[in-house]
Write a structure and sequence with these properties.
The protein is built from ten helices and 16 strands. By secondary structure, it is of the alpha/beta class. α7 runs parallel beside α9. The radius of gyration is 19 Å and the shape is globular. It starts with a helix and ends with a strand. The structure holds adenosine-5'-diphosphate (ADP) and magnesium ion. Residues 31-33, 63, 203-205, 208-209, 212, 235-240 line the site of adenosine-5'-diphosphate.
């Protein structure tokens, strides 16, 4: 009996959050390292399904860097990055599409659908969801793209039909060509376009460290004006740069809160959304 009462208490504690986020859209970006791990993926899929069943509208965006690299190596292909961006020639683009859409997206969708008829997989060219153009940087990176526009219609339709859109971070160009786009960037653009309430990055580190080299001083709250300072200071590098940029983009686009969470913590999503427990780094507008 005591056990049952405790369970009821836990549910009641979650009620203010369930109420607050009811029918709100939450974009969740699952990092490549997190979805590489089967066990983690199972627990994340369970959390996302629960969120859906209690009335939130999650939208999932995923990358797949480590798995794409692993597959390329298996095929004896050269894996090359410049400033964190994968050099993507035509052959590499084919592999990116195969792994991202055929493997990772389908795996995520099937994991979620173990909990019910919940998820539908999409990539950039479905309903012209993610239009893109070539990203111009010093070196020619081939089919590395950046978002030019997001068409929300297909996502909105799926949400209205009670589905969770699961989006692979591929864009489509004017001539129908595919582009490989950083998934953080896609998540930020989507959160802005659908006017999400929250954007959450599930990654492989506790949050943003003030001093990353020594892993000292985890930043728990950041305000928008500080984000630019941190970006300019060089205190963050590699994969954290597009994440913080995407947080900024989303918040400036009207999203209320952005979170960078450790996806390795069991049920990090539930802790963040349904409890007072503040984990990881939260980024908010002001005050
Ligand atoms: N200041 C910082 N604080 C925390 N992580 C940082 C920082 N600067 C760089 N990083 C790196 O960013 C990585 C997260 O980005 P990334 O590897 O692209 O993961 P994801 O697959 O989730 O996109 C961390 O594992 C860490 O190596
Ligand atoms: Mg990354």
């Amino acid at each position: 009996m005591e056990d049952a009462l405790n369970k009821a208490k836990i549910l009641l504690e979650a009620m203010p959050y369930i109420k607050k986020y009811h029918s709100k859209k939450v974009v969740i970006k699952c990092g490549g390292n997190v979805i590489f791990d089967d066990k983690l993926m199972d627990s994340i899929s369970t959390d996302i399904s629960l969120m859906k069943y209690v009335g939130l509208n999650p939208i999932i965006v995923h990358g797949g860097g480590p798995e794409i690299s692993a597959f390329m190596k298996k095929l004896g292909m050269k894996v090359e990055f410049v400033d964190g961006l994968r050099v993507t020639d035509e052959e590499t683009m084919e592999i990116v599409k195969m792994v991202l859409v055929g493997k990772i997206n389908k795996r995520l969708v099937s994991r979620l659908n173990l909990h019910g008829k919940l998820a539908v997989g999409l990539s950039g060219d479905d309903g012209n969801l993610i239009m893109a153009k070539k990203k111009m940087v010093e070196k020619d990176l081939g089919y590395v793209g950046e978002v030019t526009s997001i068409d929300v219609e297909i996502m909105e339709d799926l949400i209205a039909d009670n589905f969770i859109p699961v989006i692979a971070s591929l864009g489509v160009g004017k001539k129908g060509e595919s582009f490989n786009i950083n998934a953080d960037n896609v998540a930020g653009e989507i959160a802005k376009a659908v006017k999400a309430n929250k954007i959450i990055f599930l990654t492989n580190i506790e949050g943003i460290y003030e001093n990353f080299e020594k892993m000292e001083n985890l930043i728990s709250v950041l305000k928008i004006p500080d984000c630019q300072k941190i970006l300019d200071s060089g205190r963050i590098s590699s994969g954290m740069i597009p994440k913080l940029e995407a947080c900024l983009l989303a918040l400036q686009g009207g999203v209320e809160r952005a979170h960078i969470l450790d996806g390795r913590i069991p049920h990090a999503l539930l802790l963040e959304i349904f409890t007072d427990e503040g984990i990881g780094t939260m980024i908010k507008k002001n005050g």
